[in-house]
Amino acid sequence: MKNAEQTQNITQNRRGTCPTASRRIGKWFYLLPFTFYLLPSFLYSATISIQRIGCVDMNRIMDEYPDAKKIKGELSASVNTRKENIKIFQSQIDATELEIIRMEEQLQTYNEEQKKAKEIAAVAALAESSNISSTGTVVAVDTGTVTQISSPTFTTADIETKKVTLEKQKTDLEKYIAATKQEEKDINNKAKKNIMGKIYDAIKEVSSEEGLTVLVDSCNLIYGEDAQDITEKVLKKLK
């Protein structure tokens, strides 16, 4: 009987169907997917842990870099000149608007007085032709007074010409302002092309010296406790 059982176990072992072995293999197959799932996360964490992150304040560099300050000074001088010209053009527009208002008011006053004078003259003529009533009494008529105003030295056509001039001044000012903005943009782009190459070379050199593999602008950095700030060292390179 015992020999029969031994013979059966040997046969099962040869066929690889041993119950104990099957349970062990099944357990490993059950854990295998989790092993492959955790492996990429472990490798990713290991990769992140060996990276050194740095940050640089680009705004400060642009403010303190000598070449950048020089170009900004030239830009400011050009822009300031244009801004002064814009003020002059605007004052000319204001003066033209005031002149048109003055001319219109003066012409309106003259026309009103002329109309009033004609009305008074008509009343006076009517009173003179019938100054005695049917009862023989004299009727007193108040003809009023007329303010003597000299005739304007301009006409309605002159006012219209002024208005055309005003519209041209406004259009020219708008074009000048647009050209000023475009010039400012062009100067800024030219300045960046001239100086950004030097700045990036300095940043790259400092990053290499410090062993940094990732670098971000501190202006866009939300959180970075371990980030190394290399702004000061970059400025020293540029000076």
Structural descriptors:
239 residues, mainly alpha, Protein Binding, DinI Protein, Chain A, 3-stranded parallel sheet
> Which homologous superfamily in CATH is the superfamily of the largest domain?
Skp domain
The largest sheet is: 3 strands, parallel
Gyration radius, in Å = 48 Å
Beta-strand proportion: under 5%
Order of helices and strands: HHEHHHEEH
Q: Report the helical percentage.
A: over 70%
Task: Please give a structural write-up.
With 239 residues, the chain is mainly alpha-helical. The protein has two domains: 50 residues; 188 residues, Protein Binding, DinI Protein, Chain A. Helix content is 75%, strand content 4%. It is built from six helices and three strands. A three-stranded parallel sheet has the order 2-1-3. Helix 4 packs antiparallel against helix 5 and helix 5 packs across helix 6. The longest helix has 64 residues. The protein is rod-shaped and about 115 Å long. About 15% of the residues have low confidence.
Précis, in short:
With 239 residues, the chain is mostly helical.
Secondary structure elements and pairings:
Blueprint: H1 2-15, H2 19-49, E1 53-56, H3 58-64, H4 66-129, H5 156-210, E2 214-217, E3 228-229, H6 231-238
Parallel strand pairs: 1-2, 1-3
